[in-house]
Amino acid sequence: MVPRTLDDDCGVAHAVGVLGDAWSVLVLRDVARGRTRFEQLLAGTGISRKVLTLRLQALVGSDVLERVRYQERPDRYEYLLTARGRATLPVLAALQDWGDTWLLGDGTTSATAGATSAEAHRVAALVGTAVPPVAPDPLAPDPLAPDPSAGAEAADAAAYTVLYCYPGSALTGIDDVPGGAGCTLESCTYRDRLAEFAALGARVVGVSTQEAADQAAFAARNGIQFPLVSDVDLGLATALRLPTFRLQGVPRLKRLTLVVDRQRVVRGTLFPIRDVTGSVEDALALVRAAVAEDAAATTVASGERQVHHVQADGPVRR
């Protein structure tokens, strides 16, 4: 409800009436991160059951969230963003950026961060977590296809996705931002070493907040043969709480890299990135480590199955 003392024609007043409660904002933050069920929201926010119930009812009543049944007998529901709710993603990203810059940082605009910064800790903590589906989805079989299932066979052949986030190509003023230069060099280095990733069973996908048309033009000029996905609506940025900065009033992703497996689990991260070409070699190293880890796990699982088979059959008698 809009406070009566505020201007009834003020959009800020109306927005605060819906989102002004701190718990409501944190609930939206977690729903954007893929935590859509009551118990997940309870654990993620630390809110009491009673207060969470009230906030969810209010957000559903304001058409920010939609209550959707995902199980019958007993009935279970999850809470999904509506179109009105998805329109709050830039607000969440702006709050994250403001907090990172002015409360957790020193107020300096930068396309990178310190190795011990809150942003670095947040990115490192993504290892072992799942990337929730977003639209457009950089982990889709073909992220640029109108049909999300298109290219499924090619994607199935890749056990890993190297997801590199970058501010954008040919941005006015980017060279004046610490850590901002090198977007074209980074993309072209991935282009030149694409076969090495493919040999390890990995594909490469670039993500920035540039418009898709600008990305397509950049890819055509530079012979980029892998997908460049636009996160202009900040779906991925808010889902993973990725660090951002503002350049000429537009939110841009800070440079970072994620290695994600076929189950959408983050296996490794690179942030901050100081050397754009060296980060490509570092990404290869992360993929190699994931390949070795999975091979070792497969060997152990195979051995356990063999032991179980022998035990089930009993000892061989002669």
UniProtKB/TrEMBL annotation:
The molecular function terms in GO held by this entry are: antioxidant activity; DNA binding; oxidoreductase activity
HTH hxlR-type domain ranges (all copies): 10-107
Q: Domain (Thioredoxin): give its ranges.
A: 134-296
Which UniProt keywords are given for this protein, alphabetically ordered?
Answer: DNA-binding, Transcription, Transcription regulation
Q: Which domain of life is it from?
A: Bacteria
Which Gene3D superfamilies would you find in this protein's record? Glutaredoxin, Winged helix-like DNA-binding domain superfamily/Winged helix DNA-binding domain
Entry-linked InterPro entries? AhpC/TSA, HTH_HxlR, Thioredoxin-like_sf, Thioredoxin_domain, WH-like_DNA-bd_sf, WH_DNA-bd_sf
PANTHER family of this UniProt entry? TRANSCRIPTIONAL REGULATOR, MARR FAMILY, TRANSCRIPTIONAL REGULATORY PROTEIN
Q: What is this protein called?
A: Winged helix-turn-helix transcriptional regulator
